[in-house]
Amino acid sequence: MCNQKPVFLSILFLLIFSTGKGQDPGKSSSLLAQAPSWYAYGGDAGGNRYANTDQINTENVKDLKLAWTFRTGELGQNSNIGEKLTFEATPIFFNNMLYLSTSYGKVFGLNPTTGTQIWSYDSKIDRKASFSELTSRGVSSWTDPDVPEGEECKRCILLATINSKLIKLDAATGKVCKGFGKKGVLNLYKGVFVPEPGDFQVTSPPAIINNLAVVGSSIGDNFRANTGSGVVRAFDLSTGALVWTWDPLADARKTFKGPVGAANAWSIISADPERDLVFIPTGSASPDFYGGLRPGDNRHANSVVALKASTGELVWHFQTVHHDLWDYDVAAQPALVDIRKGDTVIPAVVQATKTGNLFVLHRETGVPIYPVEERTVPASDIPGEYASPTQPFSTLPNLMGQVPLNDHTVWGKTPAERKKNAALIKGLRNEGLFTPPSLQGSILYPGNGSGTNWGSVSFDPKNQLLIANTCRFATQVELFEREKFDAKASNSQGFEISRQTGAPYGMRRQTMISDSGYLMNPPPWGTLAAVNLATGKMAWEIELGKSEEQPYGLPNGGGSIVTKGELVFIAATFDKKFRAFNVHDGALVWETELPRCGIATPMSYEDENGKQFIVIAAGGHGKMGLEIGDYLLAFALP
């Protein structure tokens, strides 16, 4: 295990607050068919996380061995928030090099065959500054069509940092491209409302489309109503000039009663260059658990939004949650896939969610390809609240399962513990999915860190299989009159507590964990599933992280990749294991132990000698209570 405590107790502290060569003949999308090997965070611009190479396959994966290890040296030294340190990065393969970033804004260029460092760049972020989050999930790449071959900054690496800078580097040397912004650096604070600098950051790599970098932001949106602006912006990659700005709450503010912010795009933005479209996953409006200041559906929050990339013009949007009261922001990258139904190929965008709903939409119109139903959900009993009477439900299989949490299903390690947990549940409002927060306390099941998060999904185009890992746990949320904050704070051990400044109610919440350190909701607590997008059927589902020591499936963070060799690779779980599964049936075919937990999404590439590597960051996770590390490991056949 990653530590000595029950794994759930250490991991869930984060979750309550808050990723080949040749052409596959079975793939028709030019996004993938023309893509070099893993040039973007999600493998390609559309986030397929598919390695188009089969040197490593189901027959020989058992022989996979560690090829090299690189250590970044980033262990939170001289930091006043080292307990939040993460290593969630997925490297990219570009210009025949590997590139990765660290939480404090270091970038490394590595030899892809040996893992040796070729260059490094340090953005020199103030380690004494306070940040709501402390991560960098990766970098982006761009080739400048106007720069001649052989000249500096022909091929470039883009880094977005937690202190809200956008930095352009020469891919060969790591030197800043001085013609971009101010000596190679853009200040992303400029032109946006930021009440607290540490609450406005960029944690995901920018989307690159044509000559533009499209950038969102990560906002501390649970502390106050008047939080930072959730604008999405596009910058010219040659000069750094602002090209357009899109505000997700511009329309909704017409009905708001007070100052509200967020609905920000903190996760990974997808791009379709052929259609001149970018796909924005948006979060909830602030504050997370009280919406009386923001009546209506809060249009464009909690949505996947298609914008015209060249202008920022809204093309369509699909809202996954109306008037969010549960912190169910859209955390997964929209996956741009081609669905084959007989001889028909449908360009689609697939949006996985925290609730387990899987929405499959036509990429050009946003119209659901598989039906979506508006179903009645529980009403709020909080004075001044305007909960939506219905919510959208996909008719595809729910990735979270359908087992309710009640006194019959509540889990406990012993009969006495189960009885105690059942008594706690009976005292809380508990009406299933979309139970609103209440003064008596409500059960949010799934919790706000459940379902599919920033690790996103992967897609096998040949077999039409969408691969998704989920985390399953319940959260207890209680609202209270804000003037009672001090009294509540003195009696809230184990809870996260927030004033929700500007709103009439404060909030406290905690993951529902038994005295023994295990989750109260019924297992499995972590799963890996495959959904056939051609048929809409679940192909298979397994408990992820299941072992003799832990037979229930583990909570997880990070995501999967799928390869042409018909393998699914994933770490993500909190037992230090890195695993490979057969894409057809989910059978475990290989596993190894990492030096730290791999709370990241792996990637794969072939070097110039044609050798395939599988790479994963193993850095533990400070905010999850897991031992931190700085390891990047590459595996290959002997």
Walk me through this protein's architecture:
The protein is mainly beta and 638 residues long. Helices cover 5% and strands 32% of the residues. The chain has four helices and 40 strands. The chain is globular. Mean pLDDT is 91; it is low at 1-36.
Name the shape in a single word: globular
Radius of gyration: 23 Å
Main beta sheet: 5 strands, mixed
User: How many DSSP-defined strands?
Assistant: 40
Strand content: 25-35%
Strand order of the largest sheet: 1-34-35-36-37
Helix percent band? under 10%
How would you classify the helix and strand content by structural class? mainly beta
If you average the pLDDT, what whole number results? 91
- Report the total helices: 4
Uncertain runs: 1-36
Ends apart, CA distance between termini: 28 Å
Write the layout of secondary structure elements.
Blueprint: H1 7-15, H2 30-33, E1 50-51, E2 65-71, E3 92-94, E4 97-101, E5 106-110, E6 117-122, E7 140-143, E8 155-160, E9 165-170, E10 185-187, E11 200-201, E12 207-209, E13 212-215, E14 218-219, E15 232-236, E16 242-246, E17 270-272, E18 277-281, E19 303-308, E20 314-319, E21 335-341, E22 344-352, E23 358-362, E24 372-376, E25 390-394, H3 415-426, E26 442-444, E27 457-460, E28 465-471, E29 475-481, H4 485-489, E30 496-498, E31 505-511, E32 526-532, E33 537-543, E34 560-563, E35 567-570, E36 577-582, E37 588-593, E38 603-606, E39 612-618, E40 631-636
Parallel strand pairs: 1-34
Antiparallel strand pairs: 2-40, 3-4, 4-5, 5-6, 7-8, 8-9, 9-10, 11-14, 12-13, 13-15, 15-16, 17-18, 18-19, 19-20, 21-22, 22-23, 24-25, 26-29, 27-28, 28-32, 29-31, 30-31, 32-33, 34-35, 35-36, 36-37, 38-39, 39-40
